[in-house]
């Protein structure tokens, strides 16, 4: 039933606060964890964002980010007449532990061990939007969950959902940083929340110190060219040789700078059945991953955020992870077999990564070196791609 409050400007009036309170209750009912409201004015740190792109820190996302920079400045570009931005935090399964930690298994960032949160949150945003449109007849809404260029963190910070941690992610004093952000734009003007004014990170630099690739050159500045999370998810090309050993077992995302955060020690996680991590999916077998053809990959990761890495990106990272642990519990024959098969894959990037991994095995398992060199030389004879050729030659130990 429409609320008695009929104006499109709720502002700070009692009526506005009543609408907001009911909206908050509805958001909790739908499974969101926290809600904050801010105005549609451009967020103050957008200049910082464009300078960050100019410094070359956006990595492979630069083109997309530049193209959408002007859209990000004003939510009106996404929904004409936007007056309020409702930001929603949704806790995810922070307790998902990489319990089967083993060198022959790949590690996936906690947020991605389960259903694709985009699907879950989009459906909830649509329901919340419909609720508001019914409560405030004539108002319009648009839900955004990574689906449109909205400066989500900036708006969320201004709406009081957390402060910027030194690894650039938002932190909430009670919930830590293991949460998703989504936004609901609306043409109705709601009472606003206020930003967290205090930087509760203090002198702590744990997230900067733990980063294996020095992807945080200064507090609150991320270099996506070096970040394992960006490299394993967004970048589907060859990985610079210098970073490969630092990947360890990460094949999709990286949680290291979150794990060390003191504020995450008591992160509540979630009981939400749609956002639970899937048991036994947190550490897939690297050998099994390397056996996935295109259709098996799509089938295995249907409805999972991991699809974003694409088959070539995920299998490339799996090959690198295997290269990092040649002497582990891993079944050496099975590992060799899977890398040799990847060496003949259709994708040159995967052939290059497999060659690099075989080169690591050649050096660390001398008994297998002749077999490895034979496989590399056979592939080199047929190889057409220059980058893959370079990797194969390096792996054999030939001059580059
Ligand atoms: Fe560094 Fe990993 Fe954090 Fe990226 S996600 S900044 S690689 S610790």
Describe the 3D structure.
The chain is of the alpha+beta class and 400 residues long. The chain is 40% helix and 9% strand. The chain is built from 17 helices and 8 strands. The strands form 3 sheets. It has a 4-stranded antiparallel sheet with strand order 1-2-7-4, sandwiched between helices. A two-stranded parallel ribbon has the order 3-8. A two-stranded antiparallel sheet has the order 5-6. The longest helix is centred in the first third of the chain and has 19 residues. The site of iron/sulfur cluster (SF4) has 13 residues, from helix 8 and helix 10.
Q: What does the secondary structure layout of this molecule look like, with pairings?
A:
Elements: H1 14-30, E1 34-39, H2 46-54, H3 62-67, H4 69-73, E2 84-91, E3 107-108, H5 117-135, E4 141-144, H6 152-158, E5 163-164, E6 170-171, E7 179-186, H7 206-210, H8 228-233, H9 244-247, E8 250-252, H10 256-259, H11 286-290, H12 294-300, H13 310-324, H14 332-342, H15 348-364, H16 369-382, H17 386-396
Parallel strand pairs: 3-8
Antiparallel strand pairs: 1-2, 2-7, 4-7, 5-6
| Strand portion | 5-15%
Bound heterogens, unique: iron/sulfur cluster
Shape assignment: elongated
Uncertain segments: 3-7
**What is the number of beta strands?**
8
Count of helix runs: 17
Overall mean confidence score, pLDDT: 91
- Give the strand order, joined by hyphens, for the main sheet: 1-2-7-4
> Can you give the helix content as a percent range?
40-55%
